[in-house]
Amino acid sequence: MPSLPRTRKTNKPKEKKEEPNGAFYRSTLWCGKRRRLHTGKLVYEGGLRSNKIQQDPLDEVYQSVDTPVIGDHVDHIVPIEKGGSATDPRNFMTLTRHMHGTKTNLERHKGILVSVKQGVDGLIPRDRNDIIKILVKYVR
């Protein structure tokens, strides 16, 4: 019995879903200026993110339980899309990738996790220890 020829799937590029505030997170203000080291590694200098990591390189949640772990993410404690300040350092927190993912998932399901007050350009946490108390339960 004759069979129909198979149809081939075309590799259409998937539409990229634009992340909220994606332009900000790619900006020079947040990332800083790019510079390539002699080893070929690309580094960013002078942005809000790199300044925070230089000031506070340890994950603030792990540090609260006397376990120093290098953080590689800078998180907005009060998310920008919920009215959080994009540029106020009082709204920044150094976290590991694991803690950043945990916090992001909690926010998606529960909303803002801390009480807030008005900062210069948006909301900032009243007490940054509130978020640390919540996240400490997820320390591995």
- Helical coverage, percent range: 25-40%
Strand tally, please? 6
Tally of alpha and pi helices:
6
Largest sheet: 2 strands, antiparallel
Commentary on this structure:
The chain has a domain at 48-138. With 140 residues, it is of the alpha+beta class. 30% of the residues lie in helices and 17% in strands. It has helices at residues 22-25, 28-31, 48-55, 60-64, 97-110, 129-135, and strands at 32-36, 42-46, 73-76, 92-95, 116-118, 123-125. The protein starts with 21 loop residues before the first helix and ends in a 5-residue tail after the last helix. The protein is built from 6 helices and 6 strands, in the order H-H-E-E-H-H-E-E-H-E-E-H. The chain is extended, with a radius of gyration of 20 Å.
Question: What's this entry about, in short?
Answer:
With 140 residues, this protein is of the alpha+beta class. The chain has helices spanning 22-25, 28-31, 48-55, 60-64, 97-110, 129-135, and strands at residues 32-36, 42-46, 73-76, 92-95, 116-118, 123-125. A hairpin with a 5-residue loop joins strand 1 and strand 2.
Top keywords for this entry?
single chain; 140 residues; alpha+beta; two-stranded antiparallel ribbon; 6 helices
List the helices and strands and how they pair.
Elements: H1 22-25, H2 28-31, E1 32-36, E2 42-46, H3 48-55, H4 60-64, E3 73-76, E4 92-95, H5 97-110, E5 116-118, E6 123-125, H6 129-135
Antiparallel strand pairs: 1-2, 3-4, 5-6
